[in-house]
Every structure is written in C-alpha cells, then in structure tokens.
Design brief:
The protein is mainly alpha-helical. The protein is 86% helix and 0% strand. Helix 1 packs antiparallel against helix 2.
C-alpha cells in the first residue's frame, strides 16, 4: 500500500465506524420495520468488511515500516 494513502484510509475508517455506531443505535432502538432492519444489517455487514480491509492494509504498512527500520 502506498503510505501516502494512510491518512485518507484513517478518515474513511473513522467514517465507517461512525456509521456502524449509528446503525447499531437504530437496530437496538427496535423501532425500524423489518425491511429497514434487514437493509441496515446488510449495510453494516458491507461496511464492516471494508473496515476490516482497511485494518489489514494498515497492518501491512506497519509491518513493512518495521521491516524497513530493522534493516
């Protein structure tokens, strides 16, 4: 991964986490109709996959940086 993309990824990750927190509040509220709850669940699943990918990319950058520092 290009290290110059890291700040952009952090912003995207934070936005995803904020949206996931919002979805959790909506689902826990129990007021959404079933169809809306299913849509929210699907959105949360998709967003969590993207967040996981971003974390994996960040881990790759950290490992590469550590290896570069070690020698």
């Amino acid at each position: 991964m290009d290290e110059t993309k890291a700040p952009e990824d952090v912003g995207q990750y934070e936005a995803i986490i904020a949206r996931l927190e919002e979805i959790i509040r909506l689902l826990e509220g129990g007021r959404a109709p079933l169809a809306e709850s299913l849509r929210l669940f699907q959105e949360a699943k998709r967003l969590s996959g993207i967040a996981n990918d971003l974390l994996e990319r960040a881990e790759t950058v950290l490992h590469a940086s550590t290896r570069a520092e070690e020698g």
